[in-house]
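## Example pair
The file below holds two records. Each record gives the amino-acid sequence first, followed by its structure token line.
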Amino acid sequence: MSLVNDALKRAKQAQQENPPPNPELAFRPVEPLNEGQPGSPLLFFGAFVGLVLVIAAAGFLIWAVTNKRGPDLHVEARPGAEPVPAVVAPQPIVTPPVVTNVQPEIVEPPKPELKLQGIFFSPTRPSAVVNDRTVYVGDRVSGLHVRAITPQAVVLTSATETNVLSLSH
């Protein structure tokens, strides 16, 4: 241990006899910033990224609003319709008379009027306007199921029939 202490004493004594030179620190005045020089590239990059994010958010919002599908409401005013009474009196139950040996008459429901007004074809999500209503594949219009939409036609099906609507030229 005495060897270590002796070495430390000698180092301290040598340091006191020959102190290390103190270099003069050279201070220079601050150079004024030229106004013609561009700002930090990081600042411009941050502004660019912020602008891109704002544009992307606005695009997503517009896309979300235009692709929102809700039920189409059809409201029709009938002139001369009687107002609905506030309280409806109970009606007596009338039992129809029993008729035997009568053949039931088969009545076909009237076929709905279908009018194709436009096709907006997109490979990912095509749509069409049928009877003033925008429809997509899988939707129902006038009791028929929309099976396919091509650039030229719309295929509608029911349990018994298939209708192909095409745009007239």
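Second record, same layout:
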Amino acid sequence: MHLTRQAAATGQQPPRKRLRDRQWLPRRRWLRRTVQALLAVVVLFIGTVAWSVGHAMTMPGGGTFAERIAEWARDHDLGFVVTFGEWLSYQPPKKGGKPSFSLAGPSSSTGSQQVGRRAEAQFGPPATLRTFARHPVPGEGHWRVLASVDGEPAIYGTYLRASPVYSSYVAGIVSMNQSLVRFELRPGAEDPGPGNWHAADWIPPGTRRGLLATFNSGFKIATSGGGFYLNGTRMGTLVKGVASEVYYRNGRLAIGTWGRSVHMTRQVVGVRQNLQLIVRGGQVPANVNNNVSTSWGATLGGGYYVWRSGIGITSDGRIIFVYGPALDVRELAELLKRAGVVTGMELDINPDWMSFMYYKKDGHPNDPTPVNLLPNQVQPPDRYYAISNRDFTAVYAR
């Protein structure tokens, strides 16, 4: 007590307090350095993420902001965040109603136009399709010519509703005659990405003469259940049992199960695999709607009714492409079947990836004008006149 009073009188601190201060000083320094290090890590992390996102937003390849940010998230193991966001914003399709646009199509391109008797006999329109809705609207299921080769109809298109419940939603259906057209698989700038593909990731000027159509491909290759092959180069592994589009040197396209109905040969120049078949032997498998989120796309929390696309082949070798909004997997399969498909597969899903464009010469055969088949698709008609981030198919005249 005497020492403490003396220290207070002389202005000196007690020895014990000075000792505590000397012990606390290193701890304060350590805490300060730790906080500084953590702040540096946080700043570095935010800077890295900002650079990565900025790079994804500005790199060539096109696409909407939502499309690019979703791709970035899935590429960085944040797919669950995208799926959760889709689940939160998902709105089921409305019931009833009528289509928002005419299903008759442009009056100048109907299937009844003059094409000559020989052309009508060999390349006439497929049979009119019956709607799944209760009552057809004018033009529904009737084919019109989208593209011709030497005056002969090569590509037909029509509109069809897939449900009597969600009757305002319309799917686009296309029939392509392989005797008149040839198919080319094109890589994407991001998927499959850079590689020795020997093919452009867009339709550049100077390669547009004879261009008739373009359409989207399948899921991102890493989630497709299979692989990608083009001109001798692979991404991923071509998996037996997976549904596959097979592109041949002569321009023809086959749809089948890899290792069973389609195989690697010297004539194969491209293979695009995606999930499992949804039409087999002209029938829709009974379990086609099972395991929707894992088998047919972990999107919207496994929501059934989303934009979907699919492709198939008929018994006489025509290629059928189908896409549209508010479709579940079974409805997509039933649309393919109704159009005559005997073997069919799902391609991509969600509105940002859907596209079918046909090309009108309009007096400029070297630079035809692209037109969207469905007027409500997100992708603009000139989508593939710029670099594409996803792989796609280009269709040319033979």
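Notes on the second record: Residues 53 and 327 are 32 Å apart (CA to CA). The helical segments are 2-10, 15-58, 65-75, 79-89, 117-123, 292-295, 329-338.
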